[in-house]
Every structure is written in structure tokens, then in C-alpha cells.
Amino acid sequence: MKDRYSLLAPWYSSLVKLIFGGKLRESKLCLLENTASKNVLIIGGGDGLDYTEIAPDISGEYWELSGSMLKKAKANLQLSQLDFHLGNFKAGKKFDEVWLHFVLDTMPDDEITSFLVEIKKSLSPRGRIFLADFFSPKKRYQRILTCGMISLFRAITGHRRANLPDYEKILFTENWLKSSEEEFLVGWVKAQIWQLG
Ligand SMILES: C[S@@+](CC[C@H](N)C(=O)[O-])C[C@H]1O[C@@H](n2cnc3c(N)ncnc32)[C@H](O)[C@@H]1O
Q1: Could you tell me which of 62, 93, 97, 96 has the C-alpha nearest to residue 76?
Q2: Nearest in space to 83 (alpha carbons), one of 64, 97, 67, 102
Q3: CB 86 within 8 A of CB 67
Q4: Domain ranges in the chain?
């Protein structure tokens, strides 16, 4: 399988920090609680750097499509109890939480829908999705950066979208209900919790 993030992986987290400060990290961590008591599924976690401080509290599975991102995640999260997997996530065990942090925005709509079917199979009855991602830009500079990031990702990683997904429409259609939300950068970035209705 081609590693589409091999060029980006060495400088991905530094670039994110340069552009967004700590906001994306905050959006990933803000809604998490009692992580030590949960069995967690992390899909598309990238280099995992933002989870380093809470690594000793994380157990479960970590799935990445990119070998170079996964290699960094294994190093950054060596204090965790995670099992690391390279490739497309396949449902197997049951989890209390699935963390989808800036990964749905890389998938076409039909792939998000079939991905959610796999997620449903992988969650315990009261299991929840923790989503953090880019939503509609609210300001001119955000619209410009959104276009710039999409173009960069299309050129470097073979990114398959030209826009951002309407996550809420897709999740509502698939019978998920939103139970919590926090906004960052005036709503351009949101952290949300979803569970089955
Ligand atoms: C935009 S990066 C975000 C990385 C990280 N979540 C972050 O916020 O820094 C998206 C990541 O998702 C991974 N990815 C995309 N689709 C995936 C899938 N179906 N299964 C596992 N990883 C996936 C990519 O390899 C990439 O590392």
C-alpha cells in the first residue's frame, strides 16, 4: 500500500503547530474524560504527538494508513497500552470510544458512510464517537487557509476531496445523535461527541 503521508509525516505536527498554535490539540483532548477506564479505538491518529501526555492512560487499538505516521505514533505513544495496526481499519473487537480526529475530512462522503457502518460494529452499546475536525470556515482568512490546505493535501497526499464533508448531515442520516460540542476558532474547528440514537 502506498504511503501517501510519507512526505508530510516528518514535518506534519510542526506545521500544524505553526499555523494553529495549540488549538487542534485542544480540540482533540477537550471532551475526553476518564480515559484510563476506557477501551479506545483511534483511527487515523497520525503521528500521535498530541496524545503523548495522556499516553499512559490510553489502551485499545491505533489504526493508521501511513507507515511513516504509524512509526512516529509508536515512538510518541510508547507509554500507552495501544496495539498498533497499519492499514484500513477492520471491525473486530468492541470499544467504549472511537477517536476520529481530523480523519473524516480526508474521506469522500460514501466512504464516510461505509466507515460509520464499521464503527457501529466496533462500539459497545453505549459507545461514543469523539470527533474533532474542520467545519465551514467562518472568516475570510479561514476560507483562504481551507482552500490552501485542501490544495496542498491534494498535491502531496492524493487527497480525494475538494471541500469539507457535511459531517452532521451524514451522521444524523446514519442515526447518530450529538451529545456534546465545543467550538474553536469561532466554529471553524469543532469537537463533538456522537452516540447511536
Ligand atoms: C489529516 S491527517 C490527521 C492526523 C491526526 N489525526 C492529526 O490530527 O494530526 C489524517 C490521517 O488519517 C490517516 N487515515 C486516513 N484514512 C484512514 C483510514 N481509513 N484508516 C486509518 N488511517 C487513515 C492518514 O494516513 C493520516 O495520517
Answers
A1: 62
A2: 64
A3: yes
A4: 12-136+165-196
Paired with 61 in beta bridges are: 41, 83
pTM above 0.90, yes or no: yes
Q: How many angstroms separate the first and last alpha carbons of the chain?
A: 36
Q: State whether the beta carbon of 60 lies less than 6 angstroms from ligand 1.
A: no
Decide: helix, strand or coil at residue 122. helix
- For the stretch 49-95, pLDDT in tens is 999 999 999 999 999 999 999 999 999 999 999 999 999 998 889 99
- Ligand 1, from 6, 65, 110, 154: best to mutate by most atoms within 8 Å of Cβ? 65
Q: Which of 112, 107, 101 is nearest to 168 (CA)?
A: 112
Distances (CA, A) of 74 to 47, 69, 78, 105: 8, 9, 6, 23
Residue 184, H or E segment: strand 176-184
Domain 12-136+165-196 has CATH 3.40.50.150: yes
Q: Cell match 442520516: residue? A: 173
Element (H, E) at 118: helix 109-122
